[in-house]
Design goal:
Layout (H helix, E strand, L loop, with lengths): L1 H25 L3 H5 L12 H14 L3 E8 L5 E7 L2 H5 L1 H12 L9 H7 L2 E7 L7 H15 L5 H7 E7 L2 H14 L31 H13 L4 E8 L6 E3 L3 E4 L5 H20 L5 E2 L5 E2 L14 E8 L7 E3 L27 E3 L1 H21 L1 H21 L4 E4 L6 H13 L5 E3 L3 E3 L2 E3 L4 E4 L5 H8 L26 H5 L4 E3 L4 H5 L1 E3 L16 E4 L4 H12 L5 E3 L3 E3 L2 E3 L4 E4 L4 H5 L7 E3 L7 E3 L5 E4 L6 H12 L5 E3 L9 H4 L2 E4 L4 H6 L2 E3 L2 E3 L12 H13 L3 E5 L9 E4 L6 E4 L2 E3 L1 H6 L7 E7 L12 E6 L5 E3 L7 E8 L5 E3 L12 E8 L2 E6 L13 H7 L4
Parallel strand pairs: 3-4, 3-5, 5-10, 6-8, 7-9, 27-28, 27-29, 29-32, 32-42
Antiparallel strand pairs: 1-2, 2-4, 6-10, 11-12, 13-17, 13-18, 14-17, 14-19, 15-16, 20-24, 20-25, 21-24, 21-26, 22-23, 30-31, 33-34, 35-38, 36-37, 36-39, 36-40, 39-41, 41-42
Length: 869
Amino acid sequence: MKKNLLLKRFTLLVVSLLLWSNIMAQLPAPETFFGFNPGDDREMFTYEQLMDYMHLLDEQSPMIHIEPYGITEMGKPMFIIFISSEQNIANLDRLKKINRQLALNEIPEGVKQDDLVEEGKMFFLSTLSMHATEVGPAQALPLTTYELLTGSDARRETILKNTVAMFIPHNPDGMNMIVDYYNKHKGTSLETSSMPGVYHKYVGHNINRDLVTLSQRENKMISSVVSSEWFPQAMIERHQMGSNGPRFFISPPHDPIAENVDAGVWNWMRVFGSRAIHEMTDAGMPGVSVNYLFDDYWPGATTTSIWKGVIGMLSEAASVNIASPIYVEPNEIRPGGKGLSENSISINLPTPWEGGWWRLSDILRYEKENTLSNLYTGAIYKNEILHYRNEVSQKEILRGKQQAPFYYILPHQQADVSEWVNLINLLHEHGIAIYSLTKDMELQDRMFKEGDVVIPMSQPYRAFIKEVLEVQKFPERFYTPGGEMIKPYDITSWSLPLHRGVNVAEINISSVLLQENIEPLEMPFSAKTDSVQDDAWALFSSAGNESFKAAFLGLDKGIAVERTQQEIYLSGKLFPAGSFLIPLNDEYETIDDELGVSPLFVAQKPDVETKALQMPRVGIVETWFHDMDAGWLRFIFDQYHIPYKVLRPADLQEAKLQRDYDILYFGDRSKSVYLNGKFESNGQMIPSRYPAEYAKGMEKKGLENLLQFIDKGGKVMAWGPSVELFLGTLSIGEDEEKQEFILPVRNVGKDLSSKDLYVPGSLLRVKMHNTHPLAWGMSDELGVFHRGSPVFRTSIPYMGMDRRVIASFADEKILMSGFAENEELLRREAALVWIKKGEGQLILSSFNPQFRASTPVTYKLIFNALWLD
């Protein structure tokens, strides 16, 4: 009887295995579904085609699960794709709970860490092709998925047993833009041309410069997956790099590295990287590099997760021309940047690639092998990694109790309450626990009030809290003792309080009393209060960025919005000049719904001089040359409900500027691109890679039209290199009516650079003349995000022109956050200049006032410019 039962069970097992084998055999291979093998020369699929294939696999295999998780800026659905064993996929909810318990140290009483580690699985997240021209990672996904579901790789069984692979195509909108553009021109001379515009609704390549500020929907989703929903123990952000260096970069990175990150994160990166470089080289893939070019100091990319205890890594494959193969001559292989000086055997490049054909299929081969290697490393070290994730959480909690700072307090009393509210909600979005003070209290010789916001440092994401709330001080590291400093890869300041103009107190003493008098803050957070029914007016302070949103919402609703022309005191509070008066009517409620703060409600209109506002007619001059800075400006205007039109530089030749516009904005693009439709290098114009119809500038005719616009009463605001359009000898008119002039300002940035001024992207202190309407509502001293040039000097004007220096660099302590060499050269130099020419006005800024939507402290300059008389 017992023998028959065993035989029956064995038979059922065999039948089950045969059925499973048959199901797997029926899964459509990628080449069958797409009609080509992913990686074939000049062949790519769109985002919808990719997801159709993944959904088909999801329907047919119990080893894959797909969850919708948010939408893109252009409305496409985004998904998380999970791949693991059938048992793990069926048990995802339980495994997700274990991830959270380990990551946040929320292990229930009576439950052992070892038991959770043994039961849990190692979750490994890959974000794919956030830079849409870097097509390889997303195009490789079907090959990797099919291998995991049906393949014969010796590592596969261990991977599926011990890991859960997570994949997220990061930029669906951009993916389609690039694929569609490439396919349109495939087989023509434009096959390898650049797609005009940004490959995203707003930010293009800057999509991975946003993981602290979380302005874009795609990044909000990724952050939520990592920080508050799935808590993967490791992740990789997959990119492509230039074609003339190594074939593939993998972590660990080069110096400098972030100093707030737990040492174990860097050590685990080395474990993953060491195994990957060995396995990829062993699989016949030369040119794999480590410790090359890319550092890990700046927390703007997806790898911001390393500040939250995640083993966050980067990969970079050498690019082809989108999907077209390239041939690389040996002399063209010239590694540049940190870590490699030549294409020779080194500890960072054990097996150089010697040149030849390089194809999309090569990228996909490297991508697939690197993915399998990472998943296998995660699988064989599963228990150690899960232990580490919990232990780093415990260490950060303990550090918060034993090391200063012990708390950050965000007082309710702020110049811009709306940015205070926004900062609190952003920190919550990052998974940080936030509290409020329940009674008045004195700490560090300072009084704090009931309702002030408190962030205890004794929590799992302590490293991230410290990183984004403290002032940045770049860690100076050198190639040799006393030798050249290792320069940062990107910017060096991201201090959220300074960049937003929010006052934050760092508490460096441990306080039991404080801990006993805080309670969890209700989220999402709002500082709104109820209005009084019989009030007639709402008064919004010009010190608040959100006040401008209220004004634009009111104008859009047809409400008669007015602006005060001088400061006023009401109810014990100063309302600076430029504050907004909005009458309360039935439409006001729709405005109030979008706000996070309340105005002062008053029964009677204050006795103050006001000006009735009109909706300004706004133009953004955006080049076709992947103009991210203009995209950021469009994004901010959309957030504040400011209507605008986009003009291309060539449009300025025929545009009726006086008729259609009150103000034009020029951003961070060079004079040569605006003027000639070409980049300039060493005095030579470089032909662009854009189709001819997109590589057009304003030319002489457009520049004269622009100058006439200013002369006849128009306004222009320009920043960064675009200011050069308005410097030097300019002219309006022809022949006898020709008027030549030089505006009373010049750029001395190059002169200061020749004296070794170096500012790689830092917050610099300026004195702001906030009595001028351009700076209404702003502090008299604040930080501006600067990169060392341009820098202005003014001169005494002539022929009816005028100028005012609105912001100048401070006398001392110019560097507020980040890094600068020889900053004293900037002392008292002009940073922001207002110029009058004819009947019009020109505002020249040496800094980007809306840099990557990360500097709200200077947004008001853009907003105030809209209503300058």
